[in-house]
Amino acid sequence: MTLELLITSLVVILLPGTGVIYTLALGISGGFRAAVLAAFGCTLGIVPHILASVVGLAAVLHASALAFEVLRYVGVAYLLFIAWSLLKDSNALDVGPEQAPAGNALRIVRKGILTNIFNPKLSLFFLAFLPQFIPASASGAATGQMLFLGGVFMALTFLVFVGYGALAAGLRRQVLSRPAVIVWMQRSFAAALGLMGLRLALADR
User: Fold this and answer.
1) What is the four-CA torsion angle of 138, 139, 141, 144, rounded to 10 degrees?
2) Is residue 5 part of a domain?
3) For the chain, what is the mean pLDDT?
4) Residue 1 in domain
5) Are 22 and 160 a contacting pair, CB within 8 Å?
6) Neighbours of 79 (CB within 10 A)
7) Residues 6+ apart with CB under 8 A from 153
């Protein structure tokens, strides 16, 4: 593991994406505990992409236009569904108690996982990114090296997302005192997710 790997990973993770938006939304609406659960779910959503890179499924996605397009549009549909749900449900970001019940916690984690699973760009990212940091001399242990580097990326993702969540949770008091802000944030999050879905739909491979 090199400093270059850590810096590159941090730059990629810090860039706002669907996982960041989801964690921020949960931090504001549910507090720090909800944000940690969201960060945990988003981090778990990286696992399938790492495994896909290890076993070569990412290469298949890259080579097969049909497979890539199917996965991409599933991701687009999911993002647009979340955006529509935010606009439709007036209580989607309703600020409540920080101690969410177990059932709600599982739902938060599940949504976080799905948010990152349906993103084909992650598979292609790991396919192009991880091998660059594996020494040629480690050809016999390349799988272990890729799993290790993927684990490092996941750990950094969790820490950064928790940081985002803590920042969002710190704004809860201001949100509580301004109910109109909740409506504004709900529409902003919905718009951001919708735009990301459209961007993914229109993006070139």
Assistant:
1) 90
2) no
3) 75
4) no
5) no
6) 25
7) 9, 13, 46, 50
Q: Is the pLDDT of residue 116 over 80?
A: yes
Residue 9 placed within a domain? no
Cβ contact 48:150 at 8 Å: no
Q: What is the structure's pLDDT at 156?
A: 93
Determine the structural domain holding residue 129 and report its residue range. 17-202
Q: Which residues contact 35 (CB under 8 A, 6 or more apart)?
A: 23, 24, 26, 27, 161, 162, 164, 165, 166, 168, 169
* pLDDT tens figures, 124-163: 667 666 666 666 555 556 678 778 888 999 999 999 999 9
* Enclosing H/E stretch for 177: none
Residue 152 located in a structural domain: yes
pLDDT in tens, 17-41: 788 888 988 888 888 999 999 999 9
What's the domain count of the chain? 1
How far apart CA 46 and CA 161 sit, in angstroms, is: 13
Asked if residue 83 lies in contact with residue 193, where contact means CB atoms within 8 angstroms, the answer is yes
